[in-house]
Specification:
single chain, alpha/beta, Diaminopimelate Epimerase, Chain A, domain 1, four-stranded mixed β-sheet, 15% strand, globular, binds calcium ion
């Protein structure tokens, strides 16, 4: 599955996540796999827990989930961020991704989503000088 993206693509995505996290205490992760065995939301919740993404002090992590062959994706925020983002925000991020994905621009769509989510996280959870990288910025690949 890790071959879905080129080395350059992966670098760009990780750089976008790293960049976003320079401005917020929040955490963003991307999980990519071929097939989604259930609804994308159910699967994202499963992956979120598997990656222990609830282990942030402010419960402000966001998972971008993508199943390439199943053509499904979703964005899942933890309780801390979900409690504060405006209604419709996640839908707007989904739409950014959808528009890029229909043109086959996966890396671009993900990087744009990361920037959008990062901006929102920075607004509600600004960077703190004592911030630690609570969750890896590396892409997580399933089968
Ligand atoms: Ca952090
Ligand atoms: Ca991180």
């Amino acid at each position: 599955m890790s071959k879905f993206f080129t080395t350059q693509d992966k670098k760009r995505i990780v750089a976008a996540i790293t960049d976003a996290e320079l401005r917020t205490s929040g955490e963003i992760r991307l999980h990519v796999e071929s097939y989604c065995p259930s609804s994308s939301l159910d699967r994202a919740v499963f992956v979120f827990n598997q990656l222990k993404m609830y282990k942030t002090r402010e419960r402000n992590s966001v998972l971008i989930y993508l199943a390439t062959e199943s053509r499904k994706f979703t964005i899942l925020g933890d309780t801390g961020i979900n409690a504060v983002v405006p209604e419709g925000f996640w839908d707007s991020v989904r739409e950014i991704m959808r528009q890029a994905f229909v043109s086959g621009l996966f890396t671009e769509g993900i990087c744009a989503a990361v920037r959008e989510i990062g901006g929102k996280l920075a607004h509600y959870f600004p960077y703190d000088k004592n911030d630690v990288d609570e969750l890896s910025n590396e892409i997580s690949f399933g089968e």
